Amino acid sequence: MAENADGQERTEEATPRRQQEAAEQGQVARSRELTTLAMLLSAALGLLMLGPSLLEGLAVQMRAGLTLDARKITDPGQMTAVLGQAFFDWVLLLAPFLGLMVVVALCAPLALGSWTFSLKLRWEHLNVLKGLARLFSWHGLVELAKALAKFLVVGGVAVILLWRGEAELLQLGQEPLASALAHTARTLGWTFLMLTLPMLLIAGVDVPFQLLSFLRNLRMTKQEIRDELKDTEGKPEVKGRIRRLQQEFAQRRMMENVPTADILVTNPSHYAVALQYKPETMKAPVIVALGVEQMALRIREVAGRHKIPRVESPLLARALYYNGALDKPVPVSLYQAVAQVLAYVYRLRRDGELTGEAIVMTDVPVPAELRTE
Q: What is the similarity comment for this entry (predicted)?
Protein backbone atom coordinates (compact mmCIF):
# COMPACT_ATOMS: atom_id res chain seq x y z
CA MET A 1 0.00 0.00 0.00
CA ALA A 2 1.40 3.41 -0.99
CA GLU A 3 2.38 5.71 1.86
CA ASN A 4 3.17 9.41 2.12
CA ALA A 5 6.00 11.11 3.93
CA ASP A 6 4.12 10.93 7.24
CA GLY A 7 3.71 7.16 7.00
CA GLN A 8 -0.02 7.31 6.38
CA GLU A 9 -1.42 4.89 3.85
CA ARG A 10 -2.91 6.32 0.68
CA THR A 11 -6.20 4.45 0.73
CA GLU A 12 -8.59 7.12 -0.62
CA GLU A 13 -9.41 7.69 -4.27
CA ALA A 14 -8.20 10.99 -5.69
CA THR A 15 -10.72 13.83 -5.59
CA PRO A 16 -11.59 15.85 -8.72
CA ARG A 17 -9.50 18.72 -7.37
CA ARG A 18 -6.48 16.43 -6.91
CA GLN A 19 -6.89 15.13 -10.46
CA GLN A 20 -7.13 18.68 -11.82
CA GLU A 21 -3.99 19.74 -9.96
CA ALA A 22 -2.16 16.69 -11.28
CA ALA A 23 -3.21 17.52 -14.85
CA GLU A 24 -2.00 21.11 -14.43
CA GLN A 25 1.38 19.72 -13.34
CA GLY A 26 1.57 17.47 -16.39
CA GLN A 27 0.63 14.26 -14.56
CA VAL A 28 -1.78 12.43 -16.86
CA ALA A 29 -2.26 8.80 -17.79
CA ARG A 30 -0.07 7.89 -20.74
CA SER A 31 0.47 4.71 -22.75
CA ARG A 32 3.36 4.74 -25.19
CA GLU A 33 2.19 1.41 -26.55
CA LEU A 34 -1.18 2.89 -27.49
CA THR A 35 0.58 5.70 -29.36
CA THR A 36 2.89 3.18 -31.07
CA LEU A 37 -0.12 1.08 -32.08
CA ALA A 38 -1.88 4.11 -33.52
CA MET A 39 1.24 5.16 -35.42
CA LEU A 40 1.80 1.66 -36.88
CA LEU A 41 -1.84 1.32 -37.88
CA SER A 42 -1.85 4.76 -39.49
CA ALA A 43 1.40 4.02 -41.33
CA ALA A 44 -0.05 0.74 -42.63
CA LEU A 45 -3.24 2.38 -43.86
CA GLY A 46 -1.27 5.31 -45.28
CA LEU A 47 1.05 3.00 -47.22
CA LEU A 48 -1.86 0.92 -48.52
CA MET A 49 -3.70 4.02 -49.75
CA LEU A 50 -0.83 6.35 -50.69
CA GLY A 51 2.09 3.93 -51.06
CA PRO A 52 1.98 3.21 -54.81
CA SER A 53 1.65 6.85 -55.82
CA LEU A 54 4.19 7.87 -53.16
CA LEU A 55 6.89 5.46 -54.36
CA GLU A 56 6.16 6.30 -57.98
CA GLY A 57 6.56 9.99 -57.22
CA LEU A 58 9.80 9.33 -55.36
CA ALA A 59 11.12 7.42 -58.36
CA VAL A 60 10.22 10.32 -60.65
CA GLN A 61 12.00 12.78 -58.34
CA MET A 62 15.10 10.57 -58.16
CA ARG A 63 15.15 10.15 -61.93
CA ALA A 64 14.89 13.91 -62.37
CA GLY A 65 17.71 14.47 -59.88
CA LEU A 66 20.04 12.06 -61.73
CA THR A 67 19.39 13.52 -65.20
CA LEU A 68 20.36 17.14 -64.69
CA ASP A 69 21.61 19.25 -67.57
CA ALA A 70 25.38 19.83 -67.39
CA ARG A 71 24.86 23.59 -67.73
CA LYS A 72 22.69 23.68 -64.61
CA ILE A 73 25.30 21.76 -62.63
CA THR A 74 28.05 24.25 -63.51
CA ASP A 75 25.85 27.33 -62.95
CA PRO A 76 25.49 28.07 -59.18
CA GLY A 77 22.43 30.24 -59.73
CA GLN A 78 20.53 27.61 -61.70
CA MET A 79 21.67 24.82 -59.37
CA THR A 80 20.27 26.68 -56.36
CA ALA A 81 16.93 27.05 -58.10
CA VAL A 82 16.93 23.36 -59.08
CA LEU A 83 17.68 22.24 -55.50
CA GLY A 84 15.00 24.56 -54.11
CA GLN A 85 12.41 23.21 -56.56
CA ALA A 86 13.43 19.63 -55.80
CA PHE A 87 13.08 20.22 -52.08
CA PHE A 88 9.64 21.76 -52.59
CA ASP A 89 8.54 18.81 -54.77
CA TRP A 90 9.75 16.28 -52.18
CA VAL A 91 7.92 18.08 -49.36
CA LEU A 92 4.74 18.32 -51.43
CA LEU A 93 4.97 14.62 -52.26
CA LEU A 94 5.51 13.47 -48.67
CA ALA A 95 3.13 16.00 -47.05
CA PRO A 96 -0.04 13.81 -47.04
CA PHE A 97 1.71 10.84 -45.41
CA LEU A 98 3.72 12.93 -42.95
CA GLY A 99 0.66 15.05 -42.12
CA LEU A 100 -1.31 11.90 -41.32
CA MET A 101 1.44 10.68 -38.99
CA VAL A 102 1.69 14.06 -37.22
CA VAL A 103 -2.07 14.22 -36.66
CA VAL A 104 -2.13 10.69 -35.26
CA ALA A 105 0.87 11.39 -32.99
CA LEU A 106 -0.92 14.45 -31.57
CA CYS A 107 -4.35 12.83 -31.22
CA ALA A 108 -3.32 9.42 -29.85
CA PRO A 109 -2.73 10.70 -26.27
CA LEU A 110 -6.30 12.04 -26.23
CA ALA A 111 -7.57 8.45 -26.08
CA LEU A 112 -6.64 8.33 -22.37
CA GLY A 113 -7.89 11.81 -21.53
CA SER A 114 -5.62 14.62 -22.63
CA TRP A 115 -2.10 15.70 -23.44
CA THR A 116 -0.17 18.39 -21.64
CA PHE A 117 2.55 20.83 -22.61
CA SER A 118 4.74 22.51 -20.06
CA LEU A 119 8.12 24.27 -20.18
CA LYS A 120 8.57 24.17 -16.41
CA LEU A 121 11.99 22.80 -15.46
CA ARG A 122 11.98 20.27 -12.66
CA TRP A 123 15.34 20.06 -10.94
CA GLU A 124 14.63 16.61 -9.51
CA HIS A 125 14.73 15.24 -13.05
CA LEU A 126 18.40 16.28 -13.22
CA ASN A 127 19.27 14.41 -10.04
CA VAL A 128 21.33 11.34 -11.02
CA LEU A 129 20.53 9.41 -7.83
CA LYS A 130 16.79 9.93 -8.23
CA GLY A 131 17.10 8.95 -11.86
CA LEU A 132 18.79 5.67 -10.92
CA ALA A 133 16.14 5.10 -8.24
CA ARG A 134 13.42 5.52 -10.85
CA LEU A 135 15.29 3.21 -13.22
CA PHE A 136 15.44 0.36 -10.69
CA SER A 137 12.02 1.03 -9.19
CA TRP A 138 9.01 -1.24 -9.57
CA HIS A 139 7.70 0.93 -12.40
CA GLY A 140 11.11 0.91 -14.13
CA LEU A 141 11.31 -2.88 -13.94
CA VAL A 142 7.82 -3.19 -15.41
CA GLU A 143 8.82 -0.87 -18.27
CA LEU A 144 11.95 -2.98 -18.90
CA ALA A 145 9.93 -6.20 -18.94
CA LYS A 146 7.42 -4.59 -21.26
CA ALA A 147 10.16 -3.43 -23.64
CA LEU A 148 11.69 -6.91 -23.75
CA ALA A 149 8.30 -8.51 -24.36
CA LYS A 150 7.56 -6.03 -27.12
CA PHE A 151 10.94 -6.71 -28.74
CA LEU A 152 10.43 -10.46 -28.64
CA VAL A 153 6.84 -10.42 -29.85
CA VAL A 154 7.26 -7.84 -32.61
CA GLY A 155 10.64 -9.27 -33.60
CA GLY A 156 9.18 -12.76 -33.78
CA VAL A 157 6.33 -11.60 -36.00
CA ALA A 158 8.80 -9.72 -38.23
CA VAL A 159 10.97 -12.84 -38.62
CA ILE A 160 7.93 -14.94 -39.52
CA LEU A 161 6.82 -12.35 -42.09
CA LEU A 162 10.30 -12.26 -43.68
CA TRP A 163 10.52 -16.05 -43.74
CA ARG A 164 7.12 -16.50 -45.34
CA GLY A 165 7.56 -13.61 -47.78
CA GLU A 166 11.11 -14.43 -48.84
CA ALA A 167 10.14 -15.64 -52.29
CA GLU A 168 7.87 -12.68 -52.91
CA LEU A 169 10.58 -10.22 -51.89
CA LEU A 170 13.17 -11.85 -54.14
CA GLN A 171 10.74 -11.79 -57.05
CA LEU A 172 10.45 -7.98 -56.87
CA GLY A 173 13.76 -7.66 -58.73
CA GLN A 174 12.30 -9.41 -61.77
CA GLU A 175 9.27 -7.11 -62.11
CA PRO A 176 9.13 -3.90 -64.14
CA LEU A 177 10.00 -0.81 -62.10
CA ALA A 178 6.46 0.65 -61.92
CA SER A 179 4.81 -2.59 -60.86
CA ALA A 180 7.70 -3.40 -58.49
CA LEU A 181 7.27 -0.08 -56.72
CA ALA A 182 3.50 -0.56 -56.36
CA HIS A 183 4.08 -4.14 -55.17
CA THR A 184 6.66 -2.92 -52.63
CA ALA A 185 4.27 -0.30 -51.27
CA ARG A 186 1.51 -2.89 -50.80
CA THR A 187 3.93 -5.30 -49.15
CA LEU A 188 5.14 -2.62 -46.75
CA GLY A 189 1.57 -1.65 -45.93
CA TRP A 190 0.49 -5.22 -45.17
CA THR A 191 3.71 -5.80 -43.20
CA PHE A 192 3.00 -2.79 -40.99
CA LEU A 193 -0.59 -3.97 -40.63
CA MET A 194 0.54 -7.44 -39.51
CA LEU A 195 2.96 -5.85 -37.02
CA THR A 196 0.03 -4.05 -35.41
CA LEU A 197 -1.55 -7.37 -34.37
CA PRO A 198 0.95 -8.09 -31.57
CA MET A 199 0.84 -4.41 -30.65
CA LEU A 200 -2.91 -4.81 -30.07
CA LEU A 201 -2.13 -7.40 -27.40
CA ILE A 202 0.62 -5.29 -25.85
CA ALA A 203 -1.49 -2.12 -25.83
CA GLY A 204 -4.46 -4.07 -24.44
CA VAL A 205 -2.34 -4.99 -21.42
CA ASP A 206 -0.50 -1.68 -21.11
CA VAL A 207 -3.50 0.69 -21.19
CA PRO A 208 -5.29 -0.79 -18.12
CA PHE A 209 -1.94 -1.06 -16.33
CA GLN A 210 -1.12 2.62 -16.97
CA LEU A 211 -4.59 3.74 -15.87
CA LEU A 212 -4.44 1.71 -12.65
CA SER A 213 -0.89 2.86 -11.95
CA PHE A 214 -1.84 6.49 -12.54
CA LEU A 215 -4.88 6.31 -10.24
CA ARG A 216 -2.82 4.44 -7.63
CA ASN A 217 -0.19 7.18 -7.60
CA LEU A 218 -2.90 9.83 -7.17
CA ARG A 219 -4.41 8.19 -4.09
CA MET A 220 -4.67 10.36 -0.99
CA THR A 221 -4.52 9.83 2.73
CA LYS A 222 -7.50 10.53 4.96
CA GLN A 223 -5.69 13.58 6.33
CA GLU A 224 -5.17 14.96 2.81
CA ILE A 225 -8.90 14.51 2.17
CA ARG A 226 -9.73 16.43 5.34
CA ASP A 227 -7.24 19.19 4.50
CA GLU A 228 -8.70 19.56 1.02
CA LEU A 229 -12.23 19.77 2.38
CA LYS A 230 -11.11 22.43 4.81
CA ASP A 231 -9.44 24.43 2.03
CA THR A 232 -12.39 23.98 -0.31
CA GLU A 233 -15.21 24.75 2.10
CA GLY A 234 -13.28 27.12 4.32
CA LYS A 235 -12.70 27.14 8.06
CA PRO A 236 -15.78 26.95 10.31
CA GLU A 237 -15.33 30.49 11.62
CA VAL A 238 -15.02 31.86 8.09
CA LYS A 239 -18.11 29.94 6.96
CA GLY A 240 -20.01 31.24 10.00
CA ARG A 241 -19.05 34.82 9.20
CA ILE A 242 -20.14 34.35 5.58
CA ARG A 243 -23.50 33.02 6.73
CA ARG A 244 -23.95 35.97 9.09
CA LEU A 245 -23.14 38.43 6.32
CA GLN A 246 -25.59 36.68 4.00
CA GLN A 247 -28.30 36.83 6.66
CA GLU A 248 -27.61 40.51 7.31
CA PHE A 249 -27.79 41.28 3.60
CA ALA A 250 -31.06 39.35 3.24
CA GLN A 251 -32.57 41.12 6.27
CA ARG A 252 -31.46 44.52 5.01
CA ARG A 253 -33.02 43.85 1.60
CA MET A 254 -36.20 42.62 3.30
CA MET A 255 -36.48 45.77 5.43
CA GLU A 256 -36.10 47.88 2.28
CA ASN A 257 -39.18 46.11 0.86
CA VAL A 258 -41.41 46.79 3.89
CA PRO A 259 -42.49 50.27 2.64
CA THR A 260 -43.85 48.65 -0.53
CA ALA A 261 -46.33 46.50 1.44
CA ASP A 262 -50.09 47.09 1.35
CA ILE A 263 -50.86 45.60 4.77
CA LEU A 264 -48.99 44.30 7.81
CA VAL A 265 -50.43 41.29 9.68
CA THR A 266 -49.25 40.96 13.32
CA ASN A 267 -49.73 38.73 16.36
CA PRO A 268 -49.84 41.58 17.65
CA SER A 269 -46.19 41.81 18.83
CA HIS A 270 -44.44 38.45 18.39
CA TYR A 271 -45.06 37.90 14.66
CA ALA A 272 -45.21 40.29 11.72
CA VAL A 273 -45.84 39.54 8.04
CA ALA A 274 -45.95 42.27 5.38
CA LEU A 275 -48.04 41.59 2.26
CA GLN A 276 -48.00 43.31 -1.09
CA TYR A 277 -50.75 42.95 -3.68
CA LYS A 278 -50.90 44.58 -7.09
CA PRO A 279 -53.96 43.21 -8.93
CA GLU A 280 -52.61 44.39 -12.29
CA THR A 281 -49.42 42.30 -12.09
CA MET A 282 -49.94 39.73 -9.32
CA LYS A 283 -52.15 36.65 -9.23
CA ALA A 284 -51.95 36.51 -5.44
CA PRO A 285 -50.55 38.63 -2.59
CA VAL A 286 -46.79 38.25 -2.04
CA ILE A 287 -44.95 38.13 1.29
CA VAL A 288 -42.31 40.89 1.16
CA ALA A 289 -41.20 40.68 4.80
CA LEU A 290 -41.71 38.41 7.80
CA GLY A 291 -40.14 38.06 11.20
CA VAL A 292 -40.54 37.09 14.82
CA GLU A 293 -39.65 38.80 18.12
CA GLN A 294 -37.01 41.52 17.47
CA MET A 295 -37.30 41.28 13.70
CA ALA A 296 -41.09 41.58 13.98
CA LEU A 297 -40.62 44.71 16.08
CA ARG A 298 -38.34 46.27 13.46
CA ILE A 299 -40.83 45.45 10.69
CA ARG A 300 -43.62 47.10 12.72
CA GLU A 301 -41.50 50.22 13.25
CA VAL A 302 -40.71 50.60 9.55
CA ALA A 303 -44.31 49.92 8.56
CA GLY A 304 -45.53 52.48 11.12
CA ARG A 305 -43.23 55.19 9.74
CA HIS A 306 -44.63 54.59 6.24
CA LYS A 307 -48.25 54.45 7.46
CA ILE A 308 -48.85 50.86 6.31
CA PRO A 309 -52.22 49.55 7.68
CA ARG A 310 -51.62 47.03 10.46
CA VAL A 311 -54.06 44.18 11.06
CA GLU A 312 -53.93 42.30 14.35
CA SER A 313 -54.89 38.71 13.52
CA PRO A 314 -52.87 36.24 15.63
CA LEU A 315 -54.04 33.10 13.83
CA LEU A 316 -53.39 34.51 10.36
CA ALA A 317 -50.02 36.02 11.33
CA ARG A 318 -48.73 32.71 12.67
CA ALA A 319 -50.15 30.75 9.71
CA LEU A 320 -48.45 33.09 7.23
CA TYR A 321 -45.14 32.99 9.13
CA TYR A 322 -44.94 29.21 9.41
CA ASN A 323 -46.40 28.29 6.02
CA GLY A 324 -45.34 31.18 3.79
CA ALA A 325 -41.97 32.08 2.25
CA LEU A 326 -40.23 35.38 1.63
CA ASP A 327 -40.83 36.86 -1.84
CA LYS A 328 -43.37 34.09 -2.58
CA PRO A 329 -47.18 34.25 -2.93
CA VAL A 330 -49.18 33.36 0.14
CA PRO A 331 -50.23 29.67 0.38
CA VAL A 332 -53.33 28.77 -1.60
CA SER A 333 -55.09 27.56 1.55
CA LEU A 334 -54.83 31.10 2.98
CA TYR A 335 -56.21 32.91 -0.08
CA GLN A 336 -59.68 33.34 1.46
CA ALA A 337 -58.36 34.65 4.78
CA VAL A 338 -55.97 37.13 3.14
CA ALA A 339 -58.64 38.22 0.63
CA GLN A 340 -61.05 38.97 3.49
CA VAL A 341 -58.42 41.09 5.29
CA LEU A 342 -57.45 42.98 2.11
CA ALA A 343 -61.10 43.65 1.21
CA TYR A 344 -61.79 45.02 4.70
CA VAL A 345 -58.71 47.29 4.64
CA TYR A 346 -59.52 48.54 1.11
CA ARG A 347 -63.09 49.38 2.21
CA LEU A 348 -61.82 51.32 5.22
CA ARG A 349 -59.37 53.22 3.00
CA ARG A 350 -62.09 54.01 0.46
CA ASP A 351 -64.39 55.30 3.16
CA GLY A 352 -61.59 57.27 4.80
CA GLU A 353 -61.89 55.34 8.05
CA LEU A 354 -58.20 54.38 8.41
CA THR A 355 -56.99 56.10 11.58
CA GLY A 356 -53.47 54.67 11.84
CA GLU A 357 -54.50 52.43 14.72
CA ALA A 358 -54.27 48.65 14.51
CA ILE A 359 -57.27 46.91 12.92
CA VAL A 360 -58.29 43.95 15.05
CA MET A 361 -59.70 40.96 13.13
CA THR A 362 -60.10 37.80 15.19
CA ASP A 363 -62.65 35.99 13.01
CA VAL A 364 -60.46 35.45 9.92
CA PRO A 365 -61.12 31.98 8.38
CA VAL A 366 -57.77 30.24 8.91
CA PRO A 367 -57.90 26.48 8.13
CA ALA A 368 -57.61 24.27 11.21
CA GLU A 369 -54.55 22.43 9.91
CA LEU A 370 -52.63 25.73 9.64
CA ARG A 371 -53.47 27.05 13.08
CA THR A 372 -50.65 27.18 15.64
CA GLU A 373 -50.82 28.22 19.24
A: Belongs to the type III secretion exporter family.
